[in-house]
Amino acid sequence: MRKILTLLIVFFVLFSCKNEKNESEISEKSPQIEQYPTPNFGIVIHGGAGTILKKNMSDSLENVYKLKLEEAIKTGHDILKNGGTAMEAVTKTINVMENSSLFNAGKGAVFTHEETNELDASVMDGATLNAGAVAGVTHIKNPIDLALAVMNNSPHVLLSGQGAERFAKEQGFEMMDPSYFYTEKRFQSLQRIKEKEKTELDHDSKVSFAEDPFIKDSKFGTVGCAALDKNGNLAAGTSTGGMTNKRWNRIGDAPIIGAGTYANNATCAVSSTGWGEYFIRGMVAHDISAMMEYKGVTLQEAAEEVIQEKLPNLGGDGGIVAIDKDGNVSMEFNTAGMYRATMNAEGDLKIGIYNE
Ligand code: ASP
Question: Where is the active site (predicted)?
Answer without folding.
Answer: 222 (nucleophile)
